[in-house]
# Entry
Amino acid sequence: MANSVMDDFPSLLRVAFHQLQDWSYPDEIDHALFQAYMKTSHDVGGEPDAPATFEEKEEEQWELNTFVTCEVLGWRGIWTSEERRRLGNVDVGRTTYLGFPYYGRWLWAVARCLVDKRHITLGELIERVGEVRERHARGTVPIDAAPRATGEGQAVPRNRHHTEAVGKGDPQCFAGMAGAPRLAVGDAVRVRDLPTFFYTRTQEYLRGKPGTVVKVSYESPAPEDEAFDREDEKPEWFYIVRFTMADLWEGYAGSPNDTLQAEISERWLQPVARTKSPHQ
# Structure
């Protein structure tokens, strides 16, 4: 019985369509349905969800090792943090995003990056994972690392962070590259409701909502550029924007003074004129 259930896991974990459908004709896709299809896996803020227990859990050793591996890849100029987020949070699809442990997706992103950037081949990765599986089956726990080779790595292609961020950090290495900020503390803004394709860091529940700039934060490549290794694009300013919770959630029952703050890049913010109070 157990084997039959495990054999059926791929079917059980398929994304469920509550409305049965097959490939659509073009005239059957309206704007709302297109937006739903384009919604990225990690943009889940404000969606209905089942209650979950919050608990503090100490990281396991493999999780700590994964974190260090990802940091080293960044320090060595192999990828940027936004690339890791895209590869581990979006390109995996919603089933894997919601089903894998947090650092499990980070580890998946490492494998994707190393294959995509031609540091290893997929065939080599499969063989290495098979080798580790065999070592584990022989009862070696924990499994000692057995690197395929060592070397100085001078021929490894790297991003410019490898040299420009040394001693400065990121995003400090982009200081002075975005020009004058278009917005200032106290400015009233509205989050633009732009289309979202492939990747975004601007939450759906903020789009179209009014807010106030409370901090001009820093200069950095926009997430839509950095996530695809486009460091040749001009950096832009990021801002901390404060929103009133009642503006974000219809029927909000909390205090009218409750607020939420989010960090948003300049391209997503549109200045708006404040409406004067009738008492002024």
